[in-house]
Each structure stands twice: as structure tokens, then as C-alpha cells.
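Long-time lurker, first post. I've been practising inverse folding by hand and with some scripts of my own, and I keep getting stuck on stretches where the C-alpha cells seem ambiguous. Below is the full C-alpha cell string for one chain I'm working on. Before anyone asks, I'm not after the true native sequence, just a reasonable design that respects the backbone. If someone could post their per-position residues I'd love to compare against what I wrote down in my notebook.
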């Protein structure tokens, strides 16, 4: 049984296309999709990996395979032909964030760059109280490229369960939302995180 996607329209205060993905285990993930020009996508990713690298966990996430990679040092960032390279020395990865010429195929040149980006919040059963907050990116083929988990109030940076939730750890999530979704910064992170999701009318992702 595959996850069931329910797509709903965000309220007028959101500058993003939003939907909720319901899963067979009863958990749900709310996405708030936003679109940025390549230079702003690059700036967002460079900020995350150059400034917030100590506090993130990242990698592809799919059914049956979850990569939870933590940075043990600040990576070197390079940019060439539309690709951002995040280099940790003994290993590195590339993300295509803008136009590039490195293929003879027009279809590949068109669909390799990030096409969609979304903030997400997951609620449901599982570790860390079944909660997670972060960013997810897809290419033009609608393939997931990378998921970035942002600081979680239930987990330390070392991925250890906190005795008591530290709601201040959601500051980065809400700060990025305020800048990229034009949302007001919540005055109370716990209240914002525990608020019920608004009922939204069905609509397909755009």
C-alpha cells in the first residue's frame, strides 16, 4: 500500500502551494512548497551547509531507506555549471540548483536542476515523538534529491532523545519560513508547533 497524498490549498497568508500527505501508519506530513530562482536556491543551501551544518541531518528519504548524515566538520562549498558541491574531504555530493551545460540531452539539462522545494512537518508515531521539521527538494523528473532535517525539539544535535523538549530548537525552521514564505515569526514556538493544521480545500500540487 503506497502513501496517500491529499492535496489542499493553503490559506491566503501563505505564499506557497501546500498539501498534506497521509500515510498507512496514521502519520501525516504537511508540505509548503515554494519556488525560488536559482540564485536564491543556491543562497539557501549555502546558508544551511556553511552556517547551520552542526545542527542538520540530511540525505535521501524514501520507503525502506533513510539516510541520516551528520556533518563532523564544516564542508567546503563550490559552484560550477549549475551544480553546488558540498565537500567534506573524504566524500562529497553535488546538487544541481540552476541551468547547466554538462549534457548533450536537452531533457536532462532541463530536468536535472531543483524544480520544487518545500518545507515539511511530520506528525505521527515513531521516534522523537513522531515529529520532524525540515526541507525537501525534487528535480524536474519529480525525483527526490535531498531531505534536510532541521533542529528537532525532541532530539539533540547528536540525535539523542531529549529528556524534555527544547522548543527553542525550532527557531531555524520558523526563521527560514519567515524569510522564504513571508510568514510572521511565531512568538511561541511550542504553540506554533502544536497548533492544529487548518482544514484546506483539495487541490493538486502546482
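-- Answer (accepted) --
I ran through it position by position. Result:
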Amino acid at each position: 500500500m503506497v502513501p496517500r497524498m491529499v492535496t489542499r490549498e493553503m490559506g491566503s497568508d501563505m505564499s506557497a502551494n501546500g498539501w498534506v500527505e497521509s500515510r498507512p501508519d496514521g502519520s501525516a506530513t504537511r508540505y509548503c512548497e515554494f519556488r525560488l530562482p536559482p540564485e536564491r536556491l543556491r543562497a539557501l543551501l549555502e546558508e544551511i551547509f556553511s552556517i547551520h551544518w552542526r545542527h542538520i541531518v540530511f540525505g535521501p528519504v524514501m520507503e525502506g531507506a533513510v539516510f541520516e548524515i551528520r556533518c563532523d566538520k564544516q564542508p567546503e562549498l563550490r559552484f560550477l555549471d549549475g551544480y553546488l558541491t558540498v565537500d567534506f574531504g573524504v566524500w562529497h555530493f553535488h546538487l544541481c540548483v540552476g541551468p547547466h551545460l554538462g549534457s548533450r540531452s536537452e531533457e536532462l539539462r532541463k530536468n536535472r536542476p531543483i524544480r520544487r522545494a518545500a518545507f515539511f512537518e511530520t506528525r505521527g508515531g515513531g521516534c522523537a515523538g513522531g515529529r520532524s521539521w525540515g526541507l525537501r527538494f525534487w528535480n524536474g523528473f519529480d525525483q527526490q534529491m535531498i531531505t534536510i532535517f532541521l533542529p528537532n525539539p525532541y532530539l539533540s544535535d547528536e540525535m539523542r532523545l531529549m529528556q524534555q523538549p527544547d522548543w527553542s530548537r525550532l527557531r531555524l525552521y520558523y526563521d527560514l519560513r519567515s524569510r522564504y514564505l513571508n510568514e510572521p515569526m511565531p512568538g511561541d514556538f511550542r504553540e506554533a508547533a502544536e497548533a492544529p493544521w487548518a482544514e484546506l480545500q483539495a487541490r493538486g500540487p502546482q
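A couple of notes from the structure itself: The longest strand covers residues 114-123. Residues 115 and 139 are 5 Å apart (CA to CA). Happy to go over any region you disagree with.
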